[in-house]
UniProtKB/TrEMBL annotation:
Keywords: Oxidoreductase. Gene3D superfamilies: NAD(P)-binding Rossmann-like Domain. The keyword Lipoprotein does not apply. It comes from the Bacteria. The keyword Oxidoreductase applies. This is NAD(P)-dependent dehydrogenase (Short-subunit alcohol dehydrogenase family). SUPFAM superfamilies: NAD(P)-binding Rossmann-fold domains. Belongs to the short-chain dehydrogenases/reductases (SDR) family. Pfam families: adh_short.
């Protein structure tokens, strides 16, 4: 049986894109999953898919990760209903478009930082504290190549994702040795977000990577499984790049 069988995995942004792929892949390994995103109906659809396909428990929950108190409530609910959390995947993200840097409003800036940085901080603090006091666990942050190769159309997002590197290092020290905290840093993935990329951006990105293509959402799954299990037992505070060989 898989090492993940019977474990409880919470995936934020789990109703679509890479998050949905992670949920299905971990459920296929026998994990019970919590599908969290802002829209409950979308979470319910994925949870139903998972129950039917893999025969595991699946809890759909509405969660806006920018809401401090909502993060607390969801963690309390998951622990109460599922018995604990063994793996947390901070996958939820947001990168709204803006016409130019001088037209980035305070509301947009604060929203991007809240979803991509404040939420992961709060969830990691809550879940990691429980893991460290219990039987341990793994926390995986989903970052972005923007953290080290920022584009002008995504600077608030890039800054937030760079902040995840700091949180990863800090929480790894704070919660070790029982809890491992790592970041997966994807390059260009063809999720629904990519449908709103500016014209010509995909071609530009593909010209910058050794594999000369963008990734499909399922190509993140191997790294998530690796960091969720004892296959990565001596890995913490690390950033794992999955970017096709970005130049």
């Amino acid at each position: 049986m898989s090492e993940l069988a019977g474990k409880v995995v919470l995936v934020t942004g789990g109703s679509r894109g890479m998050g949905r792929e992670m949920v299905h892949a971990l459920a296929a390994e026998g994990a019970d999953v919590v599908v969290a995103s802002r829209r409950l109906p979308a979470c319910e659809i994925v949870a139903d898919e998972v129950r039917r396909a893999h025969g595991v428990r699946a809890l759909p929950v509405a969660l806006n990760t920018s809401d401090w108190d909502a993060c607390t409530a969801v963690v309390d609910r998951v622990v109460d209903e599922m018995g604990g959390i063994d793996v947390l995947v901070n996958n939820a993200g947001s990168s709204p478009h803006y016409p130019s840097l001088d037209q980035v409003g305070e509301e947009l800036f604060d929203k991007v930082i809240a979803v991509n940085l404040k939420g992961p901080f709060r969830l990691t603090a809550l879940v990691g504290t429980r893991m460290a006091a219990g039987s341990g666990g793994s926390i995986i942050n989903i970052g972005s190549i923007e953290a080290i190769r920022p584009h002008e159309f995504a600077l608030p997002y890039a800054a937030a994702k760079a902040g995840l590197h700091v949180l990863t290092e800090g929480f790894a020290q704070a919660f070790g040795p029982r809890v491992r905290v790592n970041t997966i840093q994807p390059g260009a993935f063809l999720t629904d977000i990519s449908e709103r990329w500016p014209e010509g951006l995909r071609e530009q990105m593909e010209s910058q990577v050794a594999l000369q293509r963008c990734a499909e959402p399922h190509e993140v799954v191997g790294a998530v499984k690796y960091l969720s299990t004892s296959a990565s037992s001596y890995v913490t505070g690390a950033v794992l790049r999955i970017d096709g060989g970005w130049r």
